[in-house]
Amino acid sequence: MELSNPEAAEEPKQTFQFIRGSQTDRREYDWVEGADLVRKSLAESLNAKNVAFLLGAGCSSLRVSNSEVGIPTMAPLAAEFTKVHEQDVVGLPTIAERKVLVEQLGIDISVQEYARNLERLMELLHSLRFSLGRSALGSSEKQLVVVDSIIKKVQAFLWEKCTNGAFAAGDRGVLNLYETFYRKLVLRDRSLPRPWVFTTNYDLFNETAMDRLGLPYANGFSGVVERRFNPATFRYALAEQLDLTSRKWSAVDGFVYLCKIHGSISWTEDDHGLFPIREAAASKEPGKVMIYPTPAKQNASLGSPYADLFREFQSRVVREQSVLFTMGYAFGDEHINNIIYQALTIPTFRLVIFADPNLEGDIAKLKALNDPRIWIIGGEGPEAGRKAHYFDTIIEQFLPQRPSERIDDAVRKVLEAIVPSPKKAGEEE
């Protein structure tokens, strides 16, 4: 009788999916064969005429040893903010405020719709502010005070999560990922249009990474002492003069367009000039965290930047021979989804989605289209506990290597081959 050895049993192999629309073979890829296939396919897509990236909340989240060292994604943030407590918690809606919402306005913010998406909650609150501010009922004034209070608490809560955490205490895990992303992104041929990075995140990881790398970028703001939103800056390009006599110019390598379509913790509003949205360094006090527009935005000035930013997003993805890469985005925003779906009516458009292929909702609908222009990459990561569609795995495993990285890897392998390994204790010289 042969006894089985549980220790000898093979661990389940880590595999992921690379779905390219109408292909009938949707088998799982192992990491030896599959990662190289994805890298080659992405390298080709990155050389398309127009390239844009959409970075969602998942890109700023990073768990190390089961602890969050970045910024939690929208679902856990919303769950924390809307959770019902037996006693009032500083910074969260009070029991009295919840009572007003439920008993007087018929709204329970702890239901799943809001407990999974703070932006959906903000849409609701801004709509309430708009209607209550125009109501002639005597009770509306007190209700408006409650709504304003919760809006301020959401803003302060998001600001706190985007400015404090392990990353603010010296952990460079998330920032290193962003720096590596931009190092690989700027390899495009200078004859091609510069890449665009659109993000729904409020944090400053993108700006900090490019600043530390010395990469020039346009983010829609102009000025030095007072940086104000000016959509005309998205029409600007950075060039270097090659010949002083003939006035020849060439596009600067590494230039990036950054478009924060949901706003930023560094944006604030004032009443000066034609462009009342100002950019400042993140302060120690909560700023006006700005979230995408709703029909009930409190004034036209707040609607202005979003109208321009969404117009830029739409104009970029609907161009001929465009590729849009989505990372850390689960297609939970109808504003953005509608623009992407419009782009799919362009025959030369390609959509590359990094997400769990088994997700329900819009990703399942896109998968069911069997469209060869829609690629979905996701599944298990190269090691247990990681995922193929997480930002760190995308950067480390899928994005094409820079030439210097390939040389560094080659040198490392040579050194490992020619340098003798250190002697273990007890071995003879």
Tell me what you see in this structure.
The protein has 13 helices and 17 strands. The protein has 429 residues and is α/β, with parallel strands linked by helices. It folds into two domains: 12-69 and 172-415, no CATH class; 74-163, no CATH class. A nine-stranded mixed β-sheet has the order 2-1-17-16-15-3-6-12-7, sandwiched between helices. Strands 8-9-14-13 form a four-stranded antiparallel β-sheet. Strands 4-5 form a two-stranded antiparallel ribbon. A hairpin with a 4-residue loop joins strand 10 and strand 11. Helix 7 crosses helix 8.
Short description:
The protein is of the alpha/beta class and 429 residues long. The protein contains 13 helices and 17 strands.
What are the key terms here?
429 residues; alpha/beta; 2 domains; 9-stranded mixed β-sheet; 4-stranded antiparallel β-sheet; 13 helices; 37% helix
